[in-house]
């Protein structure tokens, strides 16, 4: 079964979820719009899949260039970005041509930023190949690269013209990578759709099997949560006192600090899992959530085989990194927390002792 979800922004686009949906790339490229060239930005592990995408486009007389970039967060650097620009310049890429991002979340983040910055914006299509990429990075128009100071500090909002989530590629996904992606799915359950949590609790073994129909359902539910948040607040500004798209950053402030401290050797979803337990501890200590909801965080994430604790003794380094987070305003730390299940809000300027106690709770 193929599921088609529309992200209803100013320029609506579809997210297609199903087996074999990569075959729809030809239509998304947009024949008849003056397209002469397509650049497929892909990770080394996706080299064969890049060739699969390339063949039908070449048969339609398009010039297709494969741009291989490093795996994971190593792709999101200024050097790799400059390399991609160089290829586009050498091959004569124009504003009517198209970029395709093929790979995990880091690859699609990079590909989107390349598209956003080349000639001040060209069309691009995302073909995510991980659960994390499907439910998080490929949808919503956030693009960017990292700097030595932090993650995603340089970027742009640039929406794709379409997203193809081909479930076939998940069959070869390492189990740890699948679990990492499910952290973002669980996040959607805590902030917006508790039925996600119910599904995980009802079928704990099936949710970690890539071929399970439940995994496909969870991916669709996670994308639906993100699509709604993006539609209401594309640029994460918040309106009328509402938290808006910023809710999607649940667990990310602490999680991004962990990623940077680990030099991105930890998976994004693993870091976010730790981050969610941290902010649940913060919210509990601030009187926002009860013990049952705090315990449910550990139960759900434990079922998924995700980490929930982190190393002690490095609070100063983590705190300094969090102060560079995109949600920080001035010198005031801001965390996305819950006021109850599916009731996200912002906790601004929490007491330093409170957040230190929360860190100690997850590092003891």
Description:
- The structure is a single chain.
- This protein is α/β, with parallel strands linked by helices.
- The protein folds into two domains: 3-172, Rossmann fold; 175-363, Dehydroquinate synthase-like, alpha domain (Up-down Bundle), CATH 1.20.1090.
- It is 43% helix and 18% strand.
- The protein contains 13 helices and eleven strands.
- The protein has helices at residues 25-29, 47-59, 78-90, 105-117, 131-137, 175-191, 195-202, 213-232, 252-261, 268-285, 291-303, 315-322, 352-363; strands at residues 3-7, 13-18, 37-42, 63-68, 98-103, 123-128, 142-147, 150-157, 162-166, 334-338, 344-348.
- The strands form three sheets. It has a seven-stranded mixed beta sheet with strand order 1-2-9-6-5-3-4, sandwiched between helices. The protein has a two-stranded antiparallel sheet with strand order 7-8.
- Strand 10 and strand 11 form a beta hairpin.
Which strand order does the major sheet show? 1-2-9-6-5-3-4
Q: What oligomeric arrangement do these chains adopt?
A: single chain
Number of strands: 11
The second-level CATH architecture of the largest domain is Up-down Bundle
Tally of individual domains: 2
Largest sheet: 7 strands, mixed
User: What Rg, in angstroms, do the CA atoms define?
Assistant: 20 Å
Residue share in β-strands: 15-25%
Overall average residue pLDDT:
93
CATH superfamily of the largest domain: Dehydroquinate synthase-like - alpha domain
Q: What distance separates the N and C termini?
A: 46 Å
Shape type = globular
Helix content: 40-55%
Q: What structural class should be given to the helix and strand makeup?
A: alpha/beta
Tally of helical runs = 13
